[in-house]
C-alpha cells in the first residue's frame, strides 16, 4: 500500500512537471507568434507612413511646379502674319 502511494505521488509529480513544461512551451510559441505579428505590424505601419510621405512630397512638388511654370506666350494674329 505504501508503494502504491509512492507510485501515485511520483505519477502526480511527473504529471505536474509535464504540465509545467507544456505551459512553458505554449508560452514560448505564443511569444514567438506575438513578436512576429508585432514586427509585421510595425513594417506595415512604416510602409503606410512612407507612402503618405511620398504622396505628400509628390503633391507639394506638383504644386510648386505649377507655381513656377511660366505661361506660354500669347500668339496674336499680327505675329503670325510676319
Task: Record the SSE blueprint.
Blueprint: H1 2-68, H2 77-81
Which features would summarize this protein structure in a list?
single chain; mainly alpha
Q: Could you characterize what this model shows?
A:
By secondary structure, the protein is an all-alpha fold. The protein is rod-shaped, with a radius of gyration of 37 Å.
- Give the overall shape: rod-shaped
Compute the separation of the termini in Å.
126 Å
Q: How large is the radius of gyration?
A: 37 Å
Q: What is the overall number of helices?
A: 2
Order of helices and strands: HH
Instruction: Report low-confidence residues grouped into runs of 5 or more.
Output: none
Mean pLDDT rating: 87
Helix percentage range: over 70%
Supply the helix-strand structural class.
mainly alpha
What is the number of beta strands?
A: 0
Sketch the major β-sheet: none
Percent of residues in β-strands: under 5%
Task: Write a short abstract of this structure.
By secondary structure, the protein is mainly α. The longest helix is centred in the middle third of the chain and has 67 residues.
Amino acid at each position: 500500500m505504501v508503494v502504491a502511494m509512492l507510485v501515485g505521488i511520483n505519477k502526480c509529480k511527473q504529471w505536474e512537471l509535464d504540465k509545467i513544461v507544456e505551459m512553458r512551451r505554449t508560452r514560448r510559441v505564443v511569444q514567438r507568434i506575438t513578436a512576429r505579428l508585432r514586427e509585421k505590424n510595425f513594417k506595415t505601419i512604416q510602409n503606410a507612413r512612407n507612402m503618405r510621405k511620398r504622396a505628400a512630397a509628390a503633391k507639394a512638388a506638383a504644386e510648386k511646379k505649377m507655381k513656377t511654370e511660366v505661361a506660354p506666350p500669347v500668339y496674336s494674329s499680327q505675329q503670325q502674319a510676319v
